[in-house]
């Protein structure tokens, strides 16, 4: 693979005010700050209107990605098309009332609730309200918050995260959030138990994000996969910690003591309140799309690289800035797909193509619960038994080069071997996620591949700045972007130092090349909760 160190160094200087090339080995041809920065800037521009599925923002995004993949000469991933239709139902809920006993909760201020069902009117009258601890049903772990209580027809209230966060309980992987701590698991389990409503108590530390993220992520149109027949409660959502404390006090319970007890052992208690809910919803069947392009190898064994293209769209009520541009989340990752296609294309020119193919999959509706990747895994264009691995990118590093790289979900797959080798070329090291309590491994699109048994790798930008100058820049940029996750200030910055993202993309390039030229199959490590599909050719 030829390199162009001098040209790349020059482009890095022009695009990110850099004064030195990316630390470590030379970058592959095709990875440069000028083109990468332009991809990010375009995808996160106001013209793309926040990239909400089934809007004009999607139309522009699909056209742009298709144009870039065609420009690079990549093969369409879905027969003769780059697009896979994903049937969705769009539900815009308008809650007018939520009362819990004597408490009347205000929408957005005290609570955010939605109807997950495709119905115009939701009305709940005088349903019993029950606290069910963490809302976890895991008999194999010796934990069942629903044991001995019938919640059919009732509204359940539960804590965010899992008991391990509060107590270090190793059944729940200590401080690291397990899937039992995720909101989607909790809502699904409440529905399986027959609850008519499910409310999660928001607390910033165990949730890993502030209430503003709940407002912005849950306050608008929500999507689901059309035609799903999984159980759903009549409504689900979040209440603030302040509202929860009033609810507990109303029942004669001390919030802190009760929740502390719930972290030590399964706990269910009546909150001595009746819930009444009124929601009107606008329901629309629609469709969105996944986008995939392929570099064909000698066989149909395929390495898939994923990144979600969608974000939150617009909110006209925010007069000053109504567009959620989603520059970091996830224009950086989507731009990374294009850049990796550029850098890997040279491997697939001529008569000596690698043994394996590489597919670049940009999925929809990640922000709605990983729906695009869920649909793809249910309807794969490449059989899962022929899918070697999934490498996922979500919010790449704009804080400058680092000495390290974070692996989310350390120890789950053998892919860390290739990752460590690629980092060594740059003089960098692999480190575990320093915030495992955020549950990152269960929060992005690789998780659907993992659940289906495909070894999946998810990384994050490191935390150790390469030098003192980068440390100063990093501190400044982190301060500037604080609170921008799922907010309107997640916008492209002309002074971003993109060398961190580019050096991480080079690592991915090297891992993909190693997998594409190998005949070995990555595996799940002992103790991981996943296993490879039986039909895989190993």
Short description:
This protein has about 550 residues and is of the alpha/beta class. It has 15 helices and 18 strands.
Which secondary structure elements does this structure contain, and how are they paired or packed?
Layout (H helix, E strand, L loop, with lengths): L4 H12 L16 H11 L12 H16 L3 E2 L6 E18 L2 E2 L6 E4 L6 E11 L5 E2 L4 E2 L10 E5 L3 H5 L15 H10 L4 E6 L1 H4 L3 H8 L3 E4 L9 E6 H10 L4 H10 L4 E27 L6 E7 L18 H18 L12 E7 L7 H8 L8 E6 L11 E4 L7 H11 L3 E4 L13 H6 L4 E6 L6 H14 L17 H18 L22
Parallel strand pairs: 5-8, 8-9, 9-11, 13-14, 13-15, 15-18, 16-17
Antiparallel strand pairs: 1-12, 2-3, 2-10, 2-12, 4-11, 5-12, 6-7, 12-14, 16-18
Characterise this structure.
The chain has helices at 5-16, 33-43, 56-71, 163-167, 183-192, 204-207, 211-218, 241-250, 255-264, 327-344, 371-378, 415-425, 446-451, 468-481, 499-516; strands at 75-76, 83-100, 103-104, 111-114, 121-131, 137-138, 143-144, 155-159, 197-202, 222-225, 235-240, 269-295, 302-308, 357-363, 387-392, 404-407, 429-432, 456-461. It has 538 residues and is of the alpha/beta class. It has two domains: 5-71 and 296-516, 3-Layer(aba) Sandwich (Aminopeptidase); 89-283, Glucose Oxidase, domain 1 (3-Layer(bba) Sandwich), CATH 3.50.30. The chain has a 16-stranded mixed β-sheet that branches. The longest helix has 18 residues, at 327-344.
């Amino acid at each position: 693979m030829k390199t162009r160190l001098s040209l790349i160094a020059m482009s890095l200087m022009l695009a990110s005010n850099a004064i030195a090339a990316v630390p470590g080995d030379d970058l592959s041809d095709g990875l440069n700050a000028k083109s990468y920065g332009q991809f990010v800037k375009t995808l996160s521009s106001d013209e793309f209107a926040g990239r909400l599925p089934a809007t004009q923002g999607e139309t522009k995004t699909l056209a742009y990605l298709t144009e870039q993949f065609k420009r690079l000469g990549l093969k369409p991933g879905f027969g003769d098309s780059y697009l896979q239709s994903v049937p969705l139902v769009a539900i815009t809920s308008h809650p007018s009332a939520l009362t819990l006993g004597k408490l009347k909760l205000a929408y957005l201020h005290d609570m955010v609730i939605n109807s997950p069902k495709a119905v115009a009117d939701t009305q709940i009258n005088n349903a019993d309200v029950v606290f069910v601890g963490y809302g976890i049903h895991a008999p194999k772990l010796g934990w069942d918050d629903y044991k001995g209580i019938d919640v059919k027809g009732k509204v359940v209230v539960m804590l965010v995260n899992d008991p391990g966060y509060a107590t270090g309980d190793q059944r729940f992987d200590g401080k690291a959030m397990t899937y039992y701590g995720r909101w989607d698991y909790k809502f699904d389990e409440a529905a399986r138990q027959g609850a008519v409503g499910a409310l999660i108590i928001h607390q910033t530390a165990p949730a890993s994000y502030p209430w503003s993220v709940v407002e912005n992520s849950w306050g608008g149109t929500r999507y689901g996969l059309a035609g799903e027949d999984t159980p759903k409660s009549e409504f689900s959502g979040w209440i603030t910690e302040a509202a929860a404390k009033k609810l507990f006090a109303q029942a004669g319970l001390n919030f802190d003591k009760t929740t502390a007890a719930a972290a030590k052992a399964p706990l269910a208690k009546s909150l001595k309140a009746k819930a009444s809910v009124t929601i009107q919803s606008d329901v629309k069947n629609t469709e969105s799309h996944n986008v995939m392009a392929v570099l064909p190898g000698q066989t149909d064994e395929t390495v898939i690289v994923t990144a979600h293209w969608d974000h939150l769209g617009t909110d006209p009520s925010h007069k000053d800035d109504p567009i959620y541009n989603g520059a970091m989340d996830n224009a950086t990752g989507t731009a990374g797909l294009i850049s990796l296609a550029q850098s890997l294309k040279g491997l697939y020119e001529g008569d000596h193509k690698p043994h394996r193919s590489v597919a670049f999959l940009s999925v929809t509706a990640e922000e709605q619960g990983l729906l695009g990747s869920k649909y793809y895994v249910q309807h794969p264009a490449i059989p899962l038994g022929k899918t070697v691995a999934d490498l996922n990118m979500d919010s790449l590093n704009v804080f400058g080069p680092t000495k390290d790289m974070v692996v989310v979900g350390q120890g789950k797959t053998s892919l860390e071997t290739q990752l460590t080798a690629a980092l060594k070329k740059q003089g960098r090291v692999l480190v575990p996620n320093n915030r495992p309590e955020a549950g990152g491994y269960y929060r992005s699109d690789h998780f659907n591949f993992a659940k289906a048994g495909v070894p999946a790798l998810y990384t994050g930008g490191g935390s150790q700045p390469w030098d003192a100058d980068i440390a100063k820049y990093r501190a400044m940029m982190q301060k500037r972007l604080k609170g921008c996750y799922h907010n309107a200030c997640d916008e492209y910055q002309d002074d971003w130092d993109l060398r961190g993202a580019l050096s991480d993309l080079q690592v991915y390039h090297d891992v993909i090349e190693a997998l594409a030229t190998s005949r070995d199959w990555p595996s799940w490590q002992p103790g991981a909760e996943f296993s490879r599909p039986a039909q895989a050719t190993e």
